[in-house]
Amino acid sequence: xxxxxxxSRYLVKRTGEKVFLECVxxxxxxxxxxxxxxxxxxxxxxxxxxxxxxKEKGDxxxxxxxxxxxxxxxxxxxxxxxxxxxxxxxxxxxxxxWGTEAFFGQGTRLTVV
Amino acid sequence: AQKVTQAxxxxxxxxxxxxxLDCVYETRDTxxxxxxxxxxxxxxxxxxxxxxxxxxxxxxxxxxxxxxQKSTSSFNFTITASQVVxxxxxxxxxxxxxxxRQLTFGSGTQLxxxx
Lengths: 113, 115
What we know:
Order of helices and strands of chain B: EEEEEEEEEEEE
Number of helices of chain A: 0
Number of strands of chain B: 12
Largest sheet of chain A: 7 strands, mixed
Distance between the termini of chain A: 36 Å
Number of strands of chain A: 11
Number of helices of chain B: 0
Radius of gyration of chain B: 14 Å
Shape of chain B: globular
Largest interface: A-B, 26 and 27 residues
Helix content of chain A: under 10%
Oligomer: heterodimer
């Protein structure tokens, strides 16, 4: 069974903290994505990576960075968490072939207080 | 640029009713893929269907059916004889050749099926 696993289901952090969200996939997929989900806005792409050490900005990269040191792992970093980054974060992966479906993790509900 | 619009924010139906979820997309590309995903209360998005821009054939899978019409830039999703387990948020998404690695999602439709 294919799997995308996010390290935490729920997370509470303080304003100004550095936050790491981890995502691991076991499907040997080339592409990995980080989305943010907010009510009424759907899913918005933060960053994606199509290869190890490669990354590209999505629609809302401000305040975030990413790291992909190994093919199976894609980390989202909030350098200095702010309350407006309170959200649901979803990781996804897909093969390198365009048009294939993405597989999603269960999501991390991050609250910044 | 590409855009997906799901105008229905919330829909509520009674079990066994049919329900159609609307999806309208915008893209300048002639080659693209459309997707539907389901997000149950557990939170994980589940892939339902993919359609490419050259295949306008409608698809039926059990109680689910999809109507793709390029003339109106729509990719609507119908659930026949809805069940309580169909309650979820449904997302339509688009990936165009001009932005090949990105999936753009609509804002989602919350479907509630009442017993």
